[in-house]
# Entry
Amino acid sequence: MAMSQKNGEPSEKVLTLLQPPTRLDEDHDGVLYSCLTDAGEVEMRVWTAGSRRESEEIRRFEEAAARVDWKEPGPHEVRWEPVAPTSPRIANPQGPRFEGPENEVFDTIRLEVNDDSVPLPDASALDEFEHNSGFLLPESYRRFVLRFGPGTFENIDEATVASPGYPKTYDDYDLARLNRGYGVRDWPDDEIRMSFGPNVDRVRRLILFASTSGGDRYGWDPLDPTDESAHEYGVYLLPRHGKPLMRRTGKTFAEFVATRCFRRNKDRIYRAHFDHFIRQYDTAQLFLNETSWPLKPGEDVGDFAHGLWSHMHCSPRSKLSTTFKKWLKARYGPKAEW
# Structure
């Protein structure tokens, strides 16, 4: 994709197309198009929106393509003005690089951020988690999340690392919510033994810090210190289906990254978390404040927001669904969407 420059900033994007772009299906915000590369070859490309900014960029691209006279034979240049980034994370994607042996691993990571990427956590969020949990986070983990934030490694398992400080996000990305939803602790002893092996106490005390797209989880055992000066602990895999049984997979968080997150992935890409659910969380909080709708025992706003999402689809005529739809329409207008 060619770009013209103005005062050091891209002022125009240019693609040479062979035919108009076509929309993807209604479940995907994006387009399919064929274009000429700089080498003069024809490529078929799919462009899907990974953020609100990119969605607007695609819309401008489509509008520019619609202004072209496609009745004329031959390739056509499509030019449009790019959408300027608004997130400060774009300009400063990484946090500080701390000195430590883990940099042999961390320096090989290629971080990807977009305009919707969540801000980096600050040390106070990590300190608060330690205070509330009574668990001292491993030094290599602290340095990782302060540098890269929560996100997902682009490997076959799509390993997602959680961080303190994101209570409005999905459970996989906020460390406290990830552990709050660790329901295995409440299972009967026999069920834990059957699913994960004989060490019931270890299963219950694991501090989870990562999960995979397949449903596996990784956690530290506070009673298995591997480097007391750096607060490092043994890393344990808790398989989704319990087979193979729970097992120790490493001695440090940095070793977990090197051995579990880089497999079959030469580029070592780490995608910073971006979360559209934050808007839904804020909307749910406003609904609770303005309607005094009661939370269930032990339920917080995040639980309610997640439950509301599924409730609206599974029970659209229930009292909660109809009340919420009526409130949403009155507050934001007839076209408001959840």
About this structure: Residues 3-9 have pLDDT under 50 and may be disordered. The two ends are 35 Å apart (CA to CA). The chain has twelve helices and 14 strands.
